[in-house]
Amino acid sequence: MANVIHLKALAKINLGLDVIGTREDGYHLVRMIMQTIDLYDWVTVRKSDSAGISLETNLNFLPTDEHNIAYQAVELLKQDFPQIGAVDLRIHKCIPVAAGMAGGSTDAAAVLYGMNKLYHLGIPMNRLMEYGLKLGADVPYCLLRGTALAEGIGEKLTRLAPMPDCFILIAKPPVSVSTKLVYQSLDALKEPPHPPIDAQLHDLEAQDLTSLAMHMGNVLECVTVPMHPQIAQIKELMEAQGAIAAMMSGSGPTVFGIFSEEAKAYEAKAQIRNSGLARQVYVTKPYNYKETNR
Is 25 a catalytic residue? Predict the structure, then answer.
């Protein structure tokens, strides 16, 4: 019987992000097109002979106790499944932290998935996603993966036609963004620009990469970019280097560009590194859902 499982926790980008309202409890209602990409953290879940839950990461500034969402994922399952014993977690972070790419949420999703497999809990995916929602609005999507329309607070998910094959350049500038402040600033605007989500749904069905990229939009850019002008500079540099389009992911500050040619993506990567606008720069591709591939 296996005592350990190793998993890839995939990052996400938002091809489209709109905020359409606010619930009475303060949560924002969204309409987003989510896409997992082939940039990931390594998550190891291991049965342990010691007591409780232990967590180690390769980044010394991350919490390794109940303040870490991956740790919380174990605690959550232990409440309902007393057969779960001591657990050791190891997370090797590659996804930029606090970057609008669901880095924490995807680690938690991997832990939920791994615990379910390792302890033979038999939790169906829809129920596992309910556990995930208790941890954070992005966790259910990180369990689903692929291309999806996210509605509600992000928990109402509809699988979509896969994103066409392309190259995605990721660049995270060395700035911190407060998601709470971004949404508060958005709430203060009377008429924020709403991206054409329906047009993107049509583009995915038609498998039209150029139109999909040209229709990209993120309503949060209208408040985050003025706070951090580097975001706009990175977008302009990517597009000048051949990106079909470039956009901020989530509440930022990460910027991604869509390229149809690999060589141009790597040329743009070099230019961004040389510019000093971003410390973490990667070229990757869309990760599209496969039933047998986790």
Answer: no
